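Work Package 4 report. The design task specified in the project plan requires that, given a folded chain encoded as structure tokens, an amino acid be chosen for each position. We show below one input record used in the internal validation round.
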């Protein structure tokens, strides 16, 4: 049985889409999922990138696409009242719900639905307080330990080559984006392609131009 490390941030609609369809995408395959909340903004900063919602034209397309994708795969999705928003409160809550900082699928689903299934302000303090009472975290979400665990998750993800969410890492291989789930399934089923030359092909392709 393979262990899949699932790096996610509740701010990402693609992470919600990937999370919701993951059981169906991997149906019939023996596996274990370890959920690792990460601050997507930390990865963007590390790689010197803007998030999709920080580029106006890309923001509009992102929302249209995720609403269409949600309809196609049967996932409930309603845009929150404001996006992007500060997800730290939700990430810390998820991390605090488990002694190891790896929340259960139940906890992650509750938080994802808080963001993507109500149309309300995901970062509203009163809503966050209500959600915290419902989930009854084992640790204080504001504690130094929880904050450090969340930072450790992000650093671990970066060291493993993760650059965005959702990302699934198994056997040191990164599968990025909800549209990579068929590829992840093929790998877990033992597809020989992953041992062939194409997986290593990027290392053989030189960089022709670098923008400063």
């Amino acid at each position: 049985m393979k262990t899949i490390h699932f790096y996610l941030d509740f701010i990402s609609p693609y992470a919600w889409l990937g999370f919701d369809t993951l059981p169906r995408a991997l149906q019939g395959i023996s596996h274990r999922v370890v959920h690792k909340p990460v601050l997507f903004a930390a990865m963007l900063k590390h790689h010197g990138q803007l998030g999709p919602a920080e580029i106006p034209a890309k923001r509009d397309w992102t929302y249209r696409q995720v609403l269409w994708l949600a309809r196609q795969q049967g996932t409930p999705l309603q845009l929150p009242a404001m996006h992007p928003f500060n997800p730290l409160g939700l990430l810390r809550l998820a991390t605090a719900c488990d002694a190891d900082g790896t929340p259960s699928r139940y906890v992650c689903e509750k938080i994802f639905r808080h963001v993507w299934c109500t149309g309300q302000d995901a970062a509203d303090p009163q809503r966050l307080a209500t959600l915290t009472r419902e989930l009854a975290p084992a640790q204080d979400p504001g504690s130094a330990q929880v904050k450090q665990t969340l930072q450790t998750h992000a650093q671990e993800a970066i060291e493993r080559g993760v650059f965005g969410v959702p990302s699934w890492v198994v056997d040191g291989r990164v599968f990025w984006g909800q549209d990579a789930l068929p590829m992840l399934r093929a790998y877990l089923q033992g597809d020989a392609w992953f041992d062939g030359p194409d997986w290593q092909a990027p290392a053989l392709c030189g960089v022709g131009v670098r923008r400063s």
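The chain has a mean pLDDT of 97. Validation will be extended to a larger panel in the next phase.
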